[in-house]
């Protein structure tokens, strides 16, 4: 009986280890084979808040609109622009945003949260031109005290 229990434990441990190894290997392999990273830096110079929340100041329902220049990842050459909007959902904490980054070879659209005090990841919802049929995510990282943002697109497709 002890041999059977030991054998079952050994087989179960081996199966678990193999499944963990295969799951990690499969995910990483897919990213390398299909992934493309596009990194640009937005200069947030046109951000404007429309007070739709019913009172002065920060309020649920306020609308943040923008149309800004974006630069290459060295922040030295303008490579396009963006345009979009966010709706204030939690005062002092977060907005829900939609925007499009317009680059020379096409556009990339995203949707997701923008947090007041920390970085976020938003969903890539589609694209045009060289970015047609893409999906994936975009890291949104604040820099320069919130006057510039890293847009790091992780594209699949």
Question: How would you summarize the topology of this molecule?
Answer:
Elements: H1 2-34, E1 35-43, E2 48-50, E3 63-72, E4 78-90, E5 94-103, E6 106-115, E7 120-127, E8 135-143, E9 148-156
Antiparallel strand pairs: 1-3, 1-9, 2-3, 3-4, 4-5, 5-6, 6-7, 7-8, 8-9
Q: Return the CATH architecture.
A: Beta Barrel
What is the CATH topology? AOC barrel-like
Largest sheet: 8 strands, antiparallel, barrel
The number of helical segments is: 1
The tally of structural domains comes to 1
Which residues form runs of ≥5 with pLDDT under 50? 1-33
Question: How does the helix and strand content classify structurally?
Answer: alpha+beta
Adjacency order of strands in the biggest sheet: 1-3-4-5-6-7-8-9
Could you estimate the helical fraction of the residues in percent?
10-25%
Question: Strand portion, in percent?
Answer: over 45%
| H/E element sequence | HEEEEEEEEE
Determine and state the CATH class.
Answer: Mainly Beta
Q: What distance separates the N and C termini?
A: 53 Å
Shape: globular
CATH superfamily: Allene oxide cyclase-like
Q: Give the rounded overall mean pLDDT.
A: 84
- Radius of gyration from the CA trace? 22 Å
How many distinct beta strands? 9
């Amino acid at each position: 009986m002890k041999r059977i229990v030991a054998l079952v434990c050994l087989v179960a441990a081996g199966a678990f280890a193999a499944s963990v190894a295969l799951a990690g290997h499969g995910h990483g392999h897919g990213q390398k084979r299909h992934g493309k990273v596009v990194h640009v830096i937005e200069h947030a110079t046109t951000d404007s808040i429309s007070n739709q929340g019913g009172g002065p100041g920060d309020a649920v329902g306020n609308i943040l609109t923008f149309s800004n220049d974006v630069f290459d990842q060295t922040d030295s050459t303008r490579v396009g622009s963006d345009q979009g909007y966010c709706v204030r959902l939690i005062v002092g904490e977060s907005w829900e945003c939609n925007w499009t980054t317009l680059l020379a070879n096409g556009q990339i659209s995203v949707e997701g949260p923008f947090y007041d005090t920390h970085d976020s990841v938003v969903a890539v919802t589609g694209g045009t031109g060289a970015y047609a049929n893409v999906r994936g995510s975009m890291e949104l990282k604040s820099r320069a005290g919130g006057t510039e943002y890293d847009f790091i697109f992780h594209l699949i497709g």
